[in-house]
């Protein structure tokens, strides 16, 4: 049987370290042994150092069954555990020696690891008592930071490491030493930051899978793992292994820090790597599995309390912001522009999100309070933010990164909360710059060092100070929530103000219209009364002159007097039509049930002379009764018939028919039903493009010399029909007559029952 090791010998440096396959190193640390089993529990992997713990070599166990090497009793333990997904941790007796053993599944294999167990009952009792004491102490802490500090202290007391740190990641996975407990003679790392390159992506992913990682001696020699050489691609995933060998890049990094042994516990919160408990010792150090488990439990205490402690810390902020929000939204201010000035200077408006300044940009006016950009800058800033956020909201701690063109403005303010209030209106809260100093464990720009031997992790971890400018303190969730709620309330107030402005505008317009109508009524009175008298005198005088002096006047003088008489008559007719048009608008709308047959008869009788002169024939069908104003309907029918008589064709006898369609619905009239009265003539007609224009007042399609008229008749028809909640339309083609359709409601109250 041929065997080979599976040690990963690919050259790894800082150029390709992010692609380093740290989960398959092919070697382990020397403080324990490892074997890999098939699903049939046949040993196909074995660490070279098995002979240092047991009486046989790795070459002797490869290819054998686990039961034949370690006995039936131990085989039963792992066989039962293979049905479960979790890692098994159990004590086993191997060749009369007690080992702490770990068993888990790794893809298509099982991994079995064993470390000599030296713990006694007293040590287990001490670990239990210390853990119980820690749980009692934990309830005395209020903030997350104080809890982390207690965990650092208790973990060091429990494990005996020289330095214990609680390491917290930011959004970019740069780390900060958030809490620390160390030997008094060591330089503290508390508050130092470390770049994300110190812990590459695949290392963070491995921390998510395996929450506890131990290096007992940084100077260890990796122990190779051997396998039966029956597949060139055979390998073993050690992601969950407790003995997995460490990346040489990480080993070099720790040596540069002077560290001799480490313990790392993952802090996982809401499915993400929140931080680490990092324990450093400046010489070699191993821990019993019991102490490791107790330390891991303290890490779980932190992650279980993150939400609770952060909520406690934010509660006071939330209480204050909500209190300010209630006060500022509780003001009963009138919906006028002056109210926004009152709002802007209210100190509660700043308190609701702990801002340094605030500006309102409403209808082109700027209202501001506190530390803000200059007033002439705010409109352009509001416009830019509106476009950038698509008339939504925008939050930043460093506005200069987004609007560098206004860099001179940001000497005063850095943080911004923006909310659009519609139509270029906005509210913006501001925060002043907070200059901060960040202390790094070494220059983060020199995390990689190049020398004659290539690229290496930095070997200097001396404190390196970075000064951050043009940035405010972060906006907290309670502050952002309060700002959002108030912006929403302010939007409502603006809408009320706009409605109030519209109401005032329409009221003023209504008053102007009322005054105009009164003036028009006065003009109408003058037109229909005062002007009638001079016209009558003109007609009388001209007639008298013609009667008495006709024989003494020239022919031209006689023609001129006749023209003057006719002009006065046309003006009288026009004034009469205007009076009729006005009467429709000002009618009392005294609706009553009228017989349309009777109305038509009366109209025909009234215009009999015109009918005879035109040699016209009018045919009517049986018409219904409708609710209407009698004299208006009579005027309506009269105007339609006279219009047909006026525009009769000289080529044929004029024929006018009047008919009705019942229960008609029309898209122009909604869901109600109507009587459709149809007036058809065979006169000269008109182009269909004028079918709407003919109903406009003073509209004429022909000159006064061709057809006499005021241009009011059909406009009067339209107004009468509208007064009855109806509709009138026409259709025609030149030379082929015209059709007028009058729709009157067929429901009681304004039409037929």
TrEMBL record:
Coiled coil regions in record: 499-526
Stretches assigned to the Phytochrome chromophore attachment site domain: 143-300
Pfam families found in the cross-reference section: GAF, HATPase_c, PAS_2, PHY
Keywords: ATP-binding, Chromophore, Coiled coil, Kinase, Nucleotide-binding, Photoreceptor protein, Receptor, Sensory transduction, Transferase
Histidine kinase domain residues: 526-748
Gene3D superfamilies: 1.10.287.130, 3.30.450.270, 3.30.450.40, Histidine kinase-like ATPase, C-terminal domain, PAS domain
UniProt key word Transferase: yes
GO molecular function: ATP binding
Reaction(s) this enzyme catalyzes, per UniProt: ATP + protein L-histidine = ADP + protein N-phospho-L-histidine
Family named by the database record: In the N-terminal section; belongs to the phytochrome family.
Name of this protein: histidine kinase
Organism: Flavobacterium magnesitis
Organismal lineage: Bacteria, Pseudomonadati, Bacteroidota, Flavobacteriia, Flavobacteriales
């Amino acid at each position: 049987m041929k065997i080979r090791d599976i040690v990963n010998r690919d050259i790894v440096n800082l150029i390709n370290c992010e692609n380093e396959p740290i989960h398959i190193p092919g070697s382990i640390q020397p403080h324990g042994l490892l074997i890999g089993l098939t699903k049939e529990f046949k040993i196909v992997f074995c660490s070279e150092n098995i002979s240092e713990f047991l009486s046989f070599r790795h070459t002797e166990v490869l290819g054998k069954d686990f039961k034949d090497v370690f006995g039936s009793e131990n085989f039963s333990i792992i066989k039962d555990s293979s049905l479960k997904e979790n890692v098994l941790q159990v004590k086993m007796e191997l060749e009369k020696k007690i080992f702490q053993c770990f068993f888990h599944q790794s893809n298509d294999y099982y991994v079995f690891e064993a470390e000599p167990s030296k713990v006694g009952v007293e040590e287990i009792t001490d670990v239990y008592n210390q853990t119980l004491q820690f749980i009692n102490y934990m309830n005395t802490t209020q903030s997350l930071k104080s809890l982390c500090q207690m965990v650092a202290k208790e973990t060091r007391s429990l494990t005996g490491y020289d330095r214990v740190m609680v390491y917290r990641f930011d959004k970019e996975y740069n780390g900060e030493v958030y809490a620390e407990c160390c030997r008094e003679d060591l330089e503290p790392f508390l508050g130092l930051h470390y770049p994300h390159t110190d812990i590459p992506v695949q290392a963070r992913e491995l921390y998510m899978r395996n929450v506890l990682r131990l290096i007992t001696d940084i100077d260890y020699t990796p122990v190779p793992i051997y396998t039966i050489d029956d597949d060139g691609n055979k390998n073993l995933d050690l992601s969950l292994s407790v003995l997995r060998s460490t990346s040489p890049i990480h080993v070099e990094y720790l040596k540069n820090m002077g560290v001799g042994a480490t313990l790392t516990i993952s802090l996982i919160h809401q499915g993400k790597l929140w931080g680490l408990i990092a324990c450093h010792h400046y010489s070699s150090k191993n821990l019993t599995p019991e102490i490791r488990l107790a330390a891991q439990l303290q890490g779980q205490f932190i992650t279980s309390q993150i939400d609770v402690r952060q909520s406690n810390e934010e509660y006071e902020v939330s209480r204050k912001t909500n209190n300010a929000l209630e006060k500022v939204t509780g003001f009963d201010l009138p919906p006028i522009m002056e109210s926004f000035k009152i709002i802007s200077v209210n100190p509660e408006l700043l308190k609701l999100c702990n801002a340094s300044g605030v500006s309102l940009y409403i209808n082109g006016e700027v209202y501001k309070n506190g530390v803000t950009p200059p007033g002439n800058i705010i409109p352009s800033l509001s416009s830019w933010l509106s476009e950038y956020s698509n008339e939504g909201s925008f939050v930043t701690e460093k506005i200069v990164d987004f609007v560098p063109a206004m860099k001179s403005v940001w000497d005063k303010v850095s943080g911004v909360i923006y909310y659009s209030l519609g139509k270029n209106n906005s509210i913006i809260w501001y925060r002043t710059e907070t200059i901060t100093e960040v202390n790094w464990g070494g220059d983060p720009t020199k995390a990689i060092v190049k020398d004659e031997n290539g690229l290496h992790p930095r070997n200097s971890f001396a404190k390196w100070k970075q000064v951050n400018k043009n940035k405010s303190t972060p906006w907290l969730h309670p502050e952002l929530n309060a700002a959002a709620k108030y912006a929403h309330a302010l939007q409502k107030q603006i809408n009320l103000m706009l409605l109030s402005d519209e109401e005032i505008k329409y009221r003023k317009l209504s008053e102007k219209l009322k005054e105009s109508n009164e003036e028009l009524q006065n003009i109408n009175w003058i037109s229909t009364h005062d002007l009638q008298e001079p016209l009558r005198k003109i007609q009388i005088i001209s007639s008298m002159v013609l009667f008495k002096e006709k024989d003494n006047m020239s022919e031209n003088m006689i023609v001129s007097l006749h023209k003057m008489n006719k002009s006065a008559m046309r003006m009288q007719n026009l004034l009469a039509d205007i009076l009729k048009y006005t009467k429709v608008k000002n009618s009392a709308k005294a609706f009553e049930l009228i017989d349309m047959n009777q109305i038509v008869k009366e109209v025909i009788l009234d215009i009999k002379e015109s009918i005879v002169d035109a040699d016209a024939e009018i045919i009517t069908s049986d018409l219904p009764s409708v609710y209407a104003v009698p004299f208006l309907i009579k005027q309506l029918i009269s105007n339609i018939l006279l219009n047909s008589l006026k525009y009769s064709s000289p080529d044929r006898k004029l024929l006018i028919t009047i008919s009705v369609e019942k229960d008609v619905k029309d898209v122009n009239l909604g869901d109600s039903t109507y009587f459709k009265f149809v007036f058809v003539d065979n006169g000269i007609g008109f182009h269909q493009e004028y079918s709407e224009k003919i109903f406009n007042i003073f509209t004429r399609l022909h000159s006064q010399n061709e057809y006499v008229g005021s241009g009011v008749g059909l406009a009067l028809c339209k107004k009468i029909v509208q007064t009855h909640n109806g509709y009138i339309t026409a259709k025609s083609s030149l030379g082929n007559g015209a059709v007028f359709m009058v729709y009157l409601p067929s429901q009681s109250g304004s039409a037929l029952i």
